[in-house]
Amino acid sequence: xxxxxxxxxxxxxxxxxxxxxxxxxxxxxxxxxxxxxxxxxxxxxxxxxxxxxxxxxxxxxxxxxxxxxxxxxxxxxxxxxxxxxxxxxxxxxxxxxxxxxxxxxxxxxxxxxxxxxxxxxxxxxxxxxxxxxxxxxxxxxxxxxxxxxxxxxxxxxxxxxxxxxxxxxxxxxxxxxxxxxxxxxxxxxxxxxxxxxxxxxxxxxxxxxxxxxxxxxxxxxxxxxxxxxxxxxxxxxxxxxxxxxxxxxxxxxxxxxxxxxxxxxxxxxxxxxxxxxxxxxxxxxxxxxxxxxxxxxxxxxxxxxxxxxxxxxxxxxxxxxxxxxxxxxxxxxxxxxxxxxxxxxxxxxxxxxxxxxxxxxxxxxxxxxxxxxxxxxxxxxxxxxxxxxxxxxxxxxxxxxxxxxxxxxxxxxxxxxxxxxxxxxxxxxxxxxxxxxxxxxxxxxxxxxxxxxxxxxxxxxxxxxxxxxxxxxxxxxxxxxxxxxxxxxxxxxxxxxxxxxxxxxxxxxxxxxxxxxxxxxxxxxxxxxxxxxxxxxxxxxxxxxxxxxxxxxxxxxxxxxxxxxxxxxxxxxxxxxxxxxxxxxxxxxxxxxxxxxxxxxxxxxxxxxxxxxxxxxxxxxxxxxxxxxxxxxxxxxxxxxxxxxxxxxxxxxxxxxxxxxxxxxxxxxxxxxxxxxxxxxxxxxxxxxxxxxxxx
Length: 696
Ligand code: ADP
Ligand code: MG
What we know:
The chain is α+β, with helices and mostly antiparallel strands and 696 residues long.
């Protein structure tokens, strides 16, 4: 066997392993549970747990954990060993069905947004058998959902699973209307492309900002950035290559189908894309990918930065959420086929997405909101904060024909001719790429590009699944009632295109004209996290999530609260780190360097008045002026941070941080970066951007 096929999934209790390790009837019962979502019988659970334990022990595991995704955005685990005393001073290794199915971690230290008082500390975790158990660092990890004692959802997996059920239900109704009686299941699929930076660990250790905040708070523009476009798809450096090789091996062992890797636009920036999977598995795997990126980097003397904007002046990192729907019969419901204009089923699903995105722009924007992403969205390197869709010229022409009732004239596919005879001729894709669109149709899937690199993909997919489920529900209601299906279908598609085409924009999303045009079209533009988050609780959104059983209103309020609090805490840590760096490192460095300059002037003067001191004098003057400006701006920043104490209410407090603290931080940064340019590199307390970006 090849190395890769041998290691792939070797640490996963996957279907093949289950088949091998479980008695036939137990295997069947478990598969039934997985396929139909039925709950697991206790005796089945015991046998599965025992087989899982034996397999894990063979692989060298000693512990097990329920692995879950609380609202922190990262994963949580509490390890228990398999040991059980036998009474004679010895132990045996045990793992029961009960331990497999349910856990009771203390929930009091996880964010709950006021959902749960601290004295009601109990939380429950429950196995999600649709995501395989795996072994990580000697621990058997069981993917689980996490809720409070009273049943409120405290995690990201539960609502994601619920949203998958919602969209499946209504997609199946539509399929039946088209005479599809074969499909039993519809799942949403996701392939998340993950961007990240790698920096040298020794450099990283010298920067308090990177260590505390995951991004640089200061840093003068280096002489060379990304202007030569020589990094994108460039040759991968040996240290990075080694990192990627080890990362791939680790991911493959865990069954994560890591597929594509390349250098990204910014220096030191890279991307990894897996092959797409069922959404909840893709979400679990993306969490594992981010975790392993960090671990493998450290092993190689590197640090992996997942922050959305680690460096000012070069591109930040996002995560492209490629999303589609497919049936258990292997049909991709967003595949237009060869003749999309005749493919009414495709057009109907397409219309559901168009309508969903138009009506729930604010929810998609919400799902990409966070302190880090505020530096990216709308910064001419990432989509703007305005949600719109790109469909490509062919689909747009088809929809225009549908709307007007005109016949569509299928353009002949253009043959690409590279002008070299030895190269094969290939047909041009009917959808060109538009890299500036937040939500682009890319052939047989949609790519949502607003997500930040550090985000869990869960929120976005909860939103996508639910909003499309809602439109499919309305479509199914209307069409099931129709006397004559075909004309009703045509009318529905035409009406939807007419009413929602404002969301479609095929031009350059990075321009000012688009911002104005979008405003004319009445599209929403929530330019910051603080502006975007509260819309989650708009009445229509609460109604939507309640209707589909995804969230209760209380759960939504708590989620919004958690995210706002997270914004506040993040900015507060950044501001305090900035104050620390200025006071303890930057001002002392400025004092030292200006002192050296002044000394030099005095020494020269002592030799002879005729020696020119103009260089020292002008530098000294410039740095002294900057230092006093810095001192003043630092006081202002401090006052803004202190001022937060007088603000009550989470939303006003978040607004205070955005309007007063972030603004004050920007003013401090401008001065410091100017000082860095003029200061002796030997005295400047931190590695420069050039060192950080080009030293790996
Ligand atoms: P790029 O957008 O950089 O050109 P690719 O076109 O190679 O990247 O694909 C991006 C991602 O889309 C990959 O992770 C791929 O697995 C995923 N993808 C492809 N088909 C689907 C699908 N039907 N559903 C969800 N994701 C998909
Ligand atoms: Mg992409």
